[in-house]
Amino acid sequence: MEETAPLFLEVLLILGGGIVAGTLFKRIGLGTVLGYLFAGIVLGPVLRVIESGKGEILHIGELGVVFLLFIIGLELKLSRLWSLRRQIFGLGLAQVLLTGAVLAGLLMLLPLGWRAASVIGFGLALSSTAFALQLLQESGSLNTRFGQASFSVLLFQDLAIVPLLALLPVLAPGGGAEAAAGIDPVAIAKSFGALLLLVLAGRYLINPLFRVLANAGAREVMIAAALFVVLASALLMGLAGFSMAMGSFIAGVLLAESSYRHELEANIDPFRGLLLGLFFIAVGLSLDIAVIRDNWWIILLGAPALMAVKAAILYPLCRVFGENHANALRTSLVLPQGGEFAFVLFSAASGAAIFDGAVGSLLVAVVTLSMALTPLTAYLGRRLTEEEDDEGEQLEEDFEGAGSDILMIGFSRFGQMAAQVLLSSGLEMTILDSSAERIKTAGRFGFRIYFGSGLRREVLEAAGIRQAKIVAVCTNKPEVTNQIVDLIRSEFPNVSLFVRSYDRNHSLVLRERGVSFEIRETLESALRFGGQTLEELGFETARVREIVEDVRKRDAERLVLQQARGLGAGGSVFAPNKATPEPLVKPRAGRDGEPAGPKRRPRGQKPLSVRLAEESAAAD
């Protein structure tokens, strides 16, 4: 225990620093990202309470980027990704090539050499996926037009790191000929084979796996399986030569159509948040105070200069690719920083002797400072464009299956009939259910239904409850329904709740909870049944409708009275005819002394229902 005490202390310091700094910076409007970075700087270079294991902490924190890209992939259908192809391979490609070339040209004015200048220039052209996406998510801008432009650029940059790393052996001193001759077709085949394997697994293995786990009902196993899918896909792509983040993103895209994606997102999201926070803290921990002290003026000038050059290039590129002034400005001010992949690229370049370690440390400090300044530039972008009409309101495309106006919880028999009415009107809706078998059956009929529990706040968030205008709760069990209603009323008070009620008492309970609308599951079917029976007995259709409507009205009046005075109130409301059933016969004793049923109707006497109908007709 004594040997592990220092490790526990470091964990507590990191958690405590993240909690305090993240909360403080969020409260003053600078965002949690800058708070985590500040916590790392204080714990590491300033107070020196965490001295060892900084590199390991950073590597663990990079899993946060992996989880983040997986969740982003879950939110992107293949059709949506295809619709972004112009921004990804147009705007993204242009940004990397033009920014990298300009920065490399400027750096060649320094005594670095063309090889080092090229690596540094294109490395600095990459932006921080972790910082930018976190800022976009915190501000709710990821679904906006400028958010999608930013995401497209970041996605291409994640692709670009692969050829950049592959070029390092070519650019290494004396390594050009060896690298050119050493292109291995087997390695290329392995890379594409790994990609094909991931596609096949995502298409044919993962859904059946989660169906089996869902039927088992073990939630902790579902969480473990979600982590396994993300980490296995990331590791597979990493071994194939791609970035791990790209592997997790591809896995997410392949699961975007899955019925279990909301459950996956809810299970992964807490780990994403913790590990991303750890990543930002680790960036702060890794700062070398000696390098900053000796080259502080280079860093203070270099970081703003880098951001200015990148923003100045990206803004006109966005305009060329069809963005308006506001969107182009905000995109350029969200992506001006250096990125986490620069750490990887510069470390590998230093190891290949393209430049020495001191230059690498200086570049890391410049990139880190640019990251620290990014929340401020993003805030500046919001302020400069808040008066303008941003075309980036919510996109028409259903970004995460959560763009629907209606979220239905519980695909019971009641819910199935209600869903048919709603879908027949042309509306789109998202349906949650916790039965794997019901999801499988419903999927064959084209319903967009996902596995997840309405009792979990994070599942409701993932299913798009904040975008829904109405939540329809159609679960079977009254106690489950009540818990869902309480959760939604507490966490999402502005949403309209339409709820299926089990019986009259349950209706009163739901009314006390303030639902927008409730209806007993048997009310309308019973009224319809009674009305059809009257028509079969010879009643005119108009008269039947009048009777049914009168009963419906009296039932509603009685519910109002019962809500005010208790369940026993309102009995007088249902007494339009004080008819006494005939014959009123004392039951015969059964064989064991138990009461038996009433005697048979005397021969020739009409049924009671027929006689009542005739009396009613005569009265009319």
Automatic annotation (TrEMBL):
PROSITE patterns: RCK_N
Signal sequence, start to end: none
GO biological process: potassium ion transport; proton transmembrane transport
Keywords associated with the record: Antiport, Ion transport, Membrane, Potassium, Potassium transport, Transmembrane, Transmembrane helix, Transport
Region (Disordered): 570-620
Primary residence: membrane
Single annotated GO MF: monoatomic cation transmembrane transporter activity
Domain RCK N-terminal: 403-521
Recorded superkingdom: Bacteria
A Pfam family per the record: TrkA_N
Chain ranges passing through the membrane: 6-25, 32-50, 56-76, 88-110, 116-136, 148-172, 192-210, 222-251, 271-291, 298-322, 342-373
Subcellular location field: Endomembrane system
Cellular component terms (Gene Ontology): endomembrane system; plasma membrane
Its membrane topology: Multi-pass membrane protein
Recorded family membership: Belongs to the monovalent cation:proton antiporter 2 (CPA2) transporter (TC 2.A.37) family.
Protein name: CPA2 family monovalent cation:H+ antiporter-2
Protein species of origin: Aureimonas pseudogalii
Lineage: Bacteria, Pseudomonadati, Pseudomonadota, Alphaproteobacteria, Hyphomicrobiales
